[in-house]
């Protein structure tokens, strides 16, 4: 999706008014850049890249669903969580996802 299309979608859905969505978009973009620049071979890099792309699509199209955010975070953490160079940025993504609240229990 092109930048102008994302901006229009955010305007139409009212998402641009939610600072959590913008913060998540920025955090996801940063982790995607850092993962792309990480030179070592990671067996599950593809999983992390797919989930980061899915997170980006979710925040571009509206307020994301908390269960889906948490699932994506678990998959990303499983794929890159042991890489200390990516840990601060992964933590940033987790903190922003936490801003969306807890999943309903029951």
Relative helix content: 55-70%
Give the tally of structural domains: 1
Major pleated sheet: none
Order of helices and strands: HHHHH
Unreliable stretches, pLDDT < 50, 5 or more residues?
none
Which structural class should the secondary elements be placed in? Answer: mainly alpha
What shape does the CA trace take? globular
Helical run tally: 5
Count the E strands. 0
Strand content is under 5%
Terminus-to-terminus distance: 36 Å
Mean pLDDT: 86
The radius of gyration over CA amounts to 14 Å
Give an overview in words.
The chain has one domain (3-98). The protein contains five helices and no strands. Helix 3 runs antiparallel to helix 4 (66-80) and helix 4 (66-80) runs antiparallel to helix 5. Helices cover 70% and strands 0% of the residues. With 106 residues, it is mainly alpha-helical. It is globular, with a radius of gyration of 14 Å. The mean pLDDT is 86.
